[in-house]
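Quick one, probably user error.
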C-alpha cells in the first residue's frame, strides 16, 4: 500500500470514528455569519506532510466537516412538521328504503265461454225445442227448422232447412217446396252432407218447385246437425214465402220419423 492509499484509509477511519460536536459547530457557524472570518494557524504537524497529501487531507476534511455541519444544522433548525390530522369522515345520510308497492290483486275475469259443441254433441246433449205448427218441428230423433235465407234479394232467393238427428239415419228424404209466385226458376242446391250420398232432383209439382234429396242405399247420415238449401230466381220484388215449406222422412234404429213445417221470413 503506497503513501496516498494509507492517507486515504486513515482519513476514512478518522471520519468514521469522528463524533461531531453539533453545538460547537453551530456556534462556529453563527460566529462566522456575524463577524469576519478568523484566520487559523496551521498546525506544525502538517508541515512535514507532502503538499499533495496535505491538500487531499484538507479537501476530504472540508467535505466531511461541511457535510456533517449541514446535516447537524438541518437537524437543529428543521421545523418539526405537525402530525397530519385526518378529518373524521362525514357519515353518509342514512337512506330510508322505499317500500315496494305491493302488486294490485288481479282483477276478477269472467270465465271464458265454453267452445261451441260439435253438431253431433249439440244434438245429443242439448234439449230440443218443442214441436211447433210454424217453421219448427220435432218427432223422435228428428228436429227441424225452415227459414228464408237473409241474403235473399228482390231478384233471387234461397230457402234453408236445418235438420238435427239424435241417432244415425239409414234412410232420409228431404223436400223443400218453393211456391210458384212468378218466374221462379232453379239456380242450384247445396247441403252440408257429402253430395255423393244423395240423389238430387228438382221438378214442378202442384204449383211449386220441388227440391228433393234422397239418401242412396247403403249410406248413413250421422247423428248431428245438417243443412239443406235450394236457390232460385224469381220475379223482381219482395217475394212472399208463405207458400214455401219442407218435409223430412227418415229411418233410424228407433224406427221411422218425419217432420214438416213452413219457412220463417228472413231476419
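Nope, works fine. Designed sequence:
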Amino acid at each position: 500500500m503506497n503513501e496516498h492509499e494509507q492517507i486515504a484509509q486513515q482519513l476514512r477511519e478518522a471520519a468514521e470514528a469522528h463524533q461531531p460536536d453539533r453545538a460547537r459547530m453551530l456556534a462556529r457557524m453563527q460566529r462566522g455569519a456575524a463577524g469576519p472570518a478568523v484566520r487559523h494557524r496551521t498546525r506544525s504537524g502538517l508541515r512535514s506532510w507532502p503538499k499533495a497529501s496535505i491538500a487531499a487531507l484538507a479537501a476530504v476534511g472540508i467535505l466531511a466537516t461541511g457535510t456533517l455541519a449541514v446535516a447537524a444544522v438541518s437537524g437543529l433548525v428543521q421545523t418539526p412538521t405537525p402530525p397530519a390530522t385526518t378529518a373524521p369522515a362525514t357519515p353518509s345520510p342514512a337512506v330510508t328504503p322505499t317500500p315496494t308497492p305491493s302488486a294490485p290483486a288481479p282483477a276478477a275475469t269472467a270465465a271464458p265461454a265454453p267452445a261451441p259443441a260439435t253438431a253431433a254433441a249439440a244434438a245429443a246433449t242439448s234439449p230440443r225445442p218443442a214441436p211447433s205448427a210454424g217453421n219448427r218441428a220435432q218427432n223422435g230423433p228428428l228436429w227441424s227448422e225452415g227459414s228464408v235465407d237473409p241474403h235473399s234479394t228482390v231478384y233471387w232467393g234461397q230457402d234453408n232447412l236445418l235438420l238435427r238427428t239424435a241417432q244415425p239415419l239409414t234412410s232420409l228424404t228431404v223436400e223443400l217446396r218453393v211456391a210458384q209466385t212468378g218466374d221462379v226458376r232453379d239456380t242450384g242446391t247445396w247441403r252440408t252432407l257429402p253430395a255423393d250420398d244423395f240423389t238430387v232432383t228438382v221438378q214442378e209439382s202442384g204449383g211449386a218447385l220441388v227440391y228433393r234429396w234422397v239418401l242412396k242405399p247403403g249410406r248413413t247420415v250421422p247423428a248431428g246437425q245438417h243443412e239443406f238449401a235450394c236457390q232460385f230466381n224469381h220475379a223482381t220484388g219482395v217475394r212472399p214465402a208463405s207458400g214455401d215449406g219442407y218435409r223430412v222422412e227418415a229411418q233410424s234404429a228407433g224406427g221411422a220419423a218425419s217432420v214438416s213445417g213452413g219457412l220463417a221470413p228472413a231476419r
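Residues 40-132 have pLDDT under 50 and may be disordered.
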